[in-house]
Write a structure and sequence with these properties.
This protein has 8 helices and 7 strands. It has 253 residues and is an alpha/beta fold.
């Protein structure tokens, strides 16, 4: 009997992560989402996934906590065994993140360190922690940002961490290729979520300004990313690796 595919999406209780989880569930793929503090929202996503007929769980994971990836790895292994009857999993989506807006001249060391820990260090070491239990032939997707290609003042530190993630993606693809594991970067453009205080979603003037600079003439929605992630993780896309795939509707081209 074929084993049901299983994913881990960090930061899956809302926004892009929520959409990814639900689109995968619609394709019959179950898995685990993480949340930092919004357990109620995570439980709602889990309930929706189960209504779609797949197994689902939510686990707490704070990407800003030093060494938290080791404790999370233990909890995740336990859930794999108890809920999915597996010792491994198929898809890792490193999505958890946070926003910070400050010009280079105004960026504090604390802001820089927090962005580094959440967006790069925790991704590096969580991936390292879970590599032994990622199934051969599996997939890793690292979520980056359109801000590594185009620039908006105030996002230098954030975009630099995402640039590091894009380099890491190439190295992971090379080192894990022998196991048939593909590793790619997905870089969303401006999306209507509560990221960064929800400015793109709630500030009408900003929303219209970005739409005017986008080839498809609108700002992105979470489902634009969630659907693409589900497709990229499908069996039809197993020959893509070490790529940066921007999903921005043609923003600033």
């Amino acid at each position: 009997m074929q084993t049901e595919k299983c994913f881990l999406i960090t930061g899956g209780s809302r926004g892009l992560g929520r959409s990814m989880a639900l689109h995968l569930a619609q394709r019959g793929v179950g898995g685990v989402i993480t949340y930092r503090s919004r357990k109620e929202e995570a439980d709602q996503v889990v309930a929706e996934m189960r209504r779609l007929g797949v197994k689902a769980e939510a686990l707490a994971f704070d990407a800003a906590e030093p060494g938290g990836w080791r404790r999370f790895g233990q909890s995740f292994r336990q859930v794999l065994s108890e809920t999915f009857d597996r010792e491994d999993f198929d898809f890792l989506v490193n999505n958890a993140g946070m926003g910070a807006h400050a010009l280079i001249a105004e960026t504090t060391e604390d802001q820089f360190d927090q962005l580094m820990h959440v967006h790069f260090k925790s991704v590096f070491f969580l991936t390292q922690e879970l590599m032994p239990i990622l199934a051969d032939g599996g997939r890793i997707l690292n979520i980056s940002s359109g801000l590594t290609r185009f620039t908006f003042p105030g996002y230098a530190a954030y975009a630099s961490m995402k640039g590091a993630i894009e380099v890491l993606t190439h190295y992971l693809a090379k080192e894990l290729g022998g196991r048939g594991i593909s590793v790619n970067t997905v870089a969303p453009g401006a999306i209507e979520t509560d990221f960064g205080g929800g400015a793109v979603r709630d500030n009408r003037e900003l929303n219209q300004m970005i739409a005017a600079q986008t080839a498809l003439a609108r700002v992105g929605l979470p489902d634009d990313i969630g659907a693409m992630i589900a497709s990229l993780l499908g069996p039809e896309n197993g020959w893509i690796t070490a790529q940066r795939i921007e999903v921005s509707g043609g923003m600033l081209i």
